[in-house]
Amino acid sequence: MKRIAKFIAYHPKTITIIAVLLLIPAAIGYINTFVNYDILSYLPGDLDSVKGENELDETFNSASMSFLVIEDMPSKDVAALKEKIAKVDNVSSVIWVNDIADISIPQEIIPQAVKDIFYSKDGKCTMMLIQYKYKAVTDETMKAIEDVRGLLNSQCFLSGMGVIMKDTRDLADSQAPIFIAIAIAIALVVMTFCMESWVEPWVLLAALCMAVVYNMGTNLIFGQISYITQCIAAILQLGVTMDYSVFLIDRFEEEKPKYADKRDAMASAIQGAFLSLSGSSLTTIFGFLALCFMDLSLGKDIGLVMAKGVVFGVLTVTIVLPALVLQCDKIIHKYRHRSFIPKFDKLNNFVVNHKKVWVAIFIVLFIPSYIMQSNVNVYYSMDRMLPDDIGCIAALNKMKEEFNMATSHFIIVDDSLDASDLVKMENEIKGTAGVTNMVAYNSFVGSGIPDSMIPDELKSIAKSGGRQMILVNTSYVAATDECNEQLTKINNIVKKYDKNGYVTGEGAMYKDLIDITDHDFKLTSVLSILSIFILIAIIFKSISIPTILVMSIELAIFVNKAISFATGTTLSFIAPTIIGCVQLGATVDYAILLTTRFREEMRNGHNKLDAIKIAANASDRSIFQSALVFFGATFGVFLTCDIKIVKEVCLLLARGSLISAGVIVFMLTPLLLVLEGLIEKTTYDFLGKKLKLKMKKKENKTADNNA
Question: In 10 A of CB 564, how many CB atoms?
Fold first, then answer.
């Protein structure tokens, strides 16, 4: 490591040139990484809902379908619009009432089964079914939706999962550069406030932004990443790795007086920083990697990208940042200013003097905050992750209003199913609470329409490859208890008549999502706590220290989520899961920093009261500096982003960083002081062999004098 550190310190220009050149392939990789906007696609492949979705795509070419509601438009104009939509690239079929009956026929004469599907109750609105050649998440379908929208006017309302994904993508693409820029700007302001140079924050951010580009560019190896990861990964990486860069700078300033050549000082700083950061970063990496064990592979998506981001952060801080600092050292020192962060000695004296009160507060807060955070309301549907005034949400509301249709279920059964059984099954499904109408081959034939009059497009939707598909529309909103109960009943009906039948669609996949994430949250929470506990236990060779540190950060996490409960805030399902792992992994470093310094001062021979005061005074500045930068970056995204799931995650992270810092300063400090005796007994060589020997000699001397 010594040779590598020397090379970096003595060849800063070479390192800088290489670092800049590496940005080119990283940028290319970033541009070419596919972004997935379909959260449901991360469900395990062995679920019936996912198998059914795949069959919709492969057998019926119906994995992507839009619903077009048209208000107060003459039938001939609707027919003309239908023809235009049918010509759009990658639109496979367009189904409307004129495929079954002549539009010159009065609505009153049209069979009721047909009217229920294509017309609202008052007859003022009509609905088209638009099928696409490819899945909703593909670029081809996104372009087709855009082209279809180009044909529509204010009387038309286009909805469906593909449309929701399209609006999500457009919103993310338009806002991501803005909120990332704002996050960087706020982080820059906070760093300028905390540091002692006007130039230094720019140098640090330059290096960390390089690390972000390297990380996001190498996501190409995964083939794709989720839009959630795309939106928050850069901000998270900046916030999490910022304190690494501050640590290196502080270490460099400490080493300068020891060496005649600043390059030798930097080489020494690199060695010390790398060993410290590689150990410290493991807690954060372990926190992120816990997400990889989720059954929902979205966790793996976020976990791997962020764990990789921490690795790039450490490497960039120990390789690229030293090169930049050495080249900018003169200008950094030329434009110095005093730090605006106040000293914490008075605050720490207050905390220490009231240690029993703060320990009592810690104990009192733990159980209530745990109960409150366990009862936070969550939502799962993608439409709730978007602003209420966006196009797809307005269309969805229109469909609910005019057709009493909030969700569509797709049922797939064998085409060889006995006709009488099929009719019985359909009638039982129609009789299920919340079902508004059904699109099925038998519905049309049974309404008096001859088989010869049913169009091939409709036949291909209903029957293909020895399977038959039934579309069931319901007034129940997806991902609600009502809809989930309805799906359970429909699934039982289908399985009664066809054991190989599937119930799929948005509602069924959301139901599976709810079941899976409930298990995932518990699993990742346990894994992150256990892994970080073991790591801290190894670092300190202790049982009590990891218990105290993990419990402290867990209290901060509980309080953070409990605030959401107390304010009546409903969170997206992924937010609590991410926070449980990320806040623990990212902020436990603050606790490790304080505890390490406390142990060091105890080994230097200070009594526990003086040791904790020295440790707190030395650590608090770094803790609050890191927390404030993390807060600034994530809070900036919260203020500017309209994607609710991103807003929620960033608000929780922003709030969590400050709460964690507060818990460490006000509660961990007195806990270490009060429990020092227990820590010493349950920690291997806590005081150090030299100090123990010294104290033993002192005790023996005192005993001899007394004798």
Answer: 23
User: Is the CB of residue 548 less than 8 Å from the CB of residue 532?
Assistant: no
Closest to 678 in 3D by CA, of 540, 544, 542:
544
Looking at the fold, whether 133 and 202 belong to one and the same domain comes out as no
- Residue 489's pLDDT is 95
CA dist 210 and 370 (Å) reads: 39
**Alpha-helical runs (H) found in 440-573:** 441-446, 456-462, 481-497, 506-540, 544-566
Coil, helix or strand for 450? Answer: coil
* Residue 198 to residues 202, 242, 339, Cα–Cα distance (Å): 8, 17, 10
Q: Supply the pLDDT for residue 691.
A: 59
Residue 571 resides in a domain: yes
Distance CA 464, CA 472 (A): 18
Number of domains in the chain: 4
366, 331: one domain: no
571 and 593 belong to one structural domain: yes
Residues 62 and 409: their CA atoms lie apart, in Å, by 12
If you ran DSSP here, which 8-state letter would residue 119 be given? B
pLDDT along the chain (707 residues), means of 10: 87 94 96 90 90 84 82 93 95 86 77 80 90 87 95 93 90 87 87 86 93 95 91 85 82 86 90 79 87 90 93 94 92 84 87 94 95 91 82 88 86 89 90 87 58 63 83 88 94 93 91 87 88 91 94 95 94 85 84 88 90 90 84 87 87 92 94 94 82 60 59
Same domain, 286 and 414: no
Residue-range definition of the domain harbouring residue 537: 346-375+524-701
Strand pairing partners for 463?
468
The answer to whether 309 touches 317, Cβ cutoff 8 Å, is no
| 265, 122: one domain | no
Residue 109 is which amino acid?
I
* Integer CA distances (angstroms), 506 to 27, 499, 650, in order: 35, 21, 27
The pLDDT, as a whole number, for residue 453 is 62
Work out the angle between the directed axes of helices 574-603 and 227-255 (0-180°, nearest 10). Answer: 10
CATH of the domain at 500: 3.30.70.100
Q: At a CB cut-off of 8 Å and minimum separation 6, what does 680 contact?
A: 686, 687
Domain contains 182:
no
Q: Which residue has the tokens 């906070």?
A: 190
- Note whether 597 and 482 are same-domain residues: no
Residue 320: what residue type? V
Residue 120 token pair: 């609202």
Kindly state the helix (H) or strand (E) to which residue 14 belongs, with its residue range: helix 12-32
Say if residue 626 is in the same domain as residue 543.
yes
Q: Tell whether 533 and 678 lie within a shared domain.
A: yes
Give the three-state DSSP class for 468. Answer: strand
Q: How far is CA 223 from the centre of its chain?
A: 18
Quick check: is 385 in a domain?
no
> Shortest CA distance to 548 belongs to which of 650, 652, 686?
686
Write down the pTM of the prediction.
Answer: 0.84
How far apart are alpha carbons 70 and 324 in whole angstroms?
60
Which own/partner contact pairs does 343-349 have at CB distance under 8 Å and 24+ positions apart? 343/617, 344/616, 344/617, 344/620, 344/621, 344/665, 345/613, 345/617, 347/620, 347/665, 348/613, 348/616, 348/617, 348/620, 348/665, 348/669, 349/613
User: Where a domain ends, among 480, 511, 542?
Assistant: 511
Does residue 519 fall inside a structural domain? Answer: no
| Closest of 490, 487, 472, 494 to residue 414, by C-alpha | 494
Question: Rounded to whole angstroms, how far apart are CA atoms 473 and 140?
Answer: 27
